[in-house]
Amino acid sequence: MKILLVASGAREHAIASALARSRHRPEIISVCTTNNPGLKKLSRSLHVGSLLDFPWVMGIAKQVKPDLAIVGPDDPIGGGLADLLEAEGFPTVAPKKSLARIESSKGFARDLLKKTVPNSVPQYRVFTSYEPKELNKFIEQDLKGNYVVKYDALRGGKGVKVSGEHLATIAEGMQYAKECIEEGGRVVIEEKLVGVEFSLLSFVSGTQVVDMPAIQDHKRAYAGDTGPNTGGMGTYTDCDHSLPFLSKKDLSQASDINRITAAALLKECPEHVEGYRGILYGGFIAVADGIRVIEYNARFGDPEALNVLPLLSSDFVEICQAITQSTLTPDLVRFEHKATVCKYLAPESYPVSKDEKGAVVSFPSVPENARLFFGDIAEDDRGILHLGGSRTAGIVGIGESLAEAEKIAEEFCRGVQGPVRHRADIGTAPLIDQRIAVMKNMRTK
Ligand code: AMP
Ligand code: GLY
């Protein structure tokens, strides 16, 4: 069988690795933004170009005639590539454009959630024109100065600014809101939530929803959760598929919300009778009195996919087929009960500048209990690897405990040669204990 994989980096390297383990031994044809050496090795052919050049992508798809297509990144999903692939008869793991608005429009997502899970939604308003008086009143009086400004379209995870973190004064917040409206026509202003964030990703086919292990991401660039936001510097999952700071109730509420959201999307977009088909990524925050939804994504996370896919012990191709055939059932999805810690290596100056672009990087051999997934990295004719400007590679340690998984990932990272850095604190006991303490304090008050 032939699988077309629409890719941009390490997330799709992890997807291709999971596909390659299938008993169906698929031929993978990748279209990617870069000449990713990991994907190249696993693919029969790799085509490099812009994923938003839909005529180009569809030209390759029509030549290949895949039995299955998987779209990894947010931009082509949000732009409606799944609609085009399905229209040509290629079963696709990725939601159609109108269903993908759960990620591509924060206003759409908030309005849908408000209707279906009102208690999990912070106070918010969508502004479609710049009304300084109204905006100021909402921020100062209703939200008491604790607010978040969200650009209402895709912006590579960098469209959100939080008061007290990225916005020092209300005037700055108002200015950013104005910019969002001028650029995108809409802005979402919402209550700033305080708590501990986690993610729950589910395989979804219409109203059939099967969860993956819960994950914690670390968006900040530097140790101790400081510095600017990034695409994610690392992630971890635990052996019981929950997280050390979550209660059973928190996790089951998140699971219910993913289920309710999948059903709500089906109802909201009746033109697609098959409903949402793909990965639904719920971004949650555990707060004093339960959980709230921070955002939804319509795809695997990067690096979240790097943690969960190596743990998948059932056949990923069969899961993908079931998603596209509306036959998804929980027995098709099995994850090993192990812990994973992923640490992203990034150029030393990431995300501030791209000073190390082109520098040589080399990796030690990968031990059995570790995984190496390539991100923004290029291989030259002599097989030498060079840094791009963005995140270089995700290193995953797999162990019987978080401590073991962390040690494996950390040791591997320390063996990499080149001008790269990583967050040594991700997955360590002090950072995890601090999250447990935050939750305990918040909930015993
Ligand atoms: P998003 O792109 O919606 O995931 O937002 C990026 C980051 O902004 C999240 O991971 C949070 O850390 C933060 N954020 C978004 N919404 C809120 C909120 N309502 N309260 C506090 N932080 C938020
Ligand atoms: N790691 C966050 C994301 O993929 O959106």
Which short descriptors sum up this protein?
445 residues; alpha+beta; Rossmann fold; Dna Ligase, domain 1; D-amino Acid Aminotransferase, Chain A, domain 1; 3 domains; 6-stranded antiparallel β-sheet; 5-stranded parallel β-sheet; 14 helices; binds adenosine monophosphate; binds glycine
The CATH superfamily label of the largest domain reads ATP-grasp fold, B domain
Compounds present? adenosine monophosphate, glycine
Assembly form of the protein: single chain
- Portion in beta strands: 25-35%
Q: What Rg is obtained from the alpha carbons, in whole angstroms?
A: 21 Å
CATH topology of the largest domain: D-amino Acid Aminotransferase, Chain A, domain 1
Question: What's the β-strand tally?
Answer: 24
Can you tell me about this structure?
The chain is α+β, with helices and mostly antiparallel strands and 445 residues long. It folds into three domains: 2-92, 3-Layer(aba) Sandwich (Rossmann fold); 123-191, ATP-grasp fold, A domain (Dna Ligase, domain 1, 2-Layer Sandwich), CATH 3.30.1490.20; 196-431, ATP-grasp fold, B domain (D-amino Acid Aminotransferase, Chain A, domain 1). It is built from 14 helices and 24 strands. The protein has helices at residues 10-20, 37-42, 54-64, 74-79, 81-87, 101-104, 106-116, 132-142, 170-184, 248-268, 304-308, 316-325, 402-414, 429-444; strands at residues 2-7, 27-32, 45-48, 68-71, 92-93, 124-127, 147-151, 160-162, 187-191, 196-205, 208-211, 216-217, 220-222, 226-229, 234-237, 277-287, 290-297, 339-347, 360-361, 370-374, 377-379, 385-387, 393-399, 420-421. The strands form six sheets. Strands 12, 15, 18, 20, 23 and 24 form a six-stranded antiparallel beta sheet that branches. A five-stranded parallel beta sheet has the order 3-2-1-4-5, with helices on both faces. It has a four-stranded antiparallel beta sheet with strand order 6-9-7-8, sandwiched between helices. It is globular and about 60 Å long. 50% of the residues are buried. The mean pLDDT is 96. Glycine is lined by residues 157, 217, 231-232, 297, 301-302, 304.
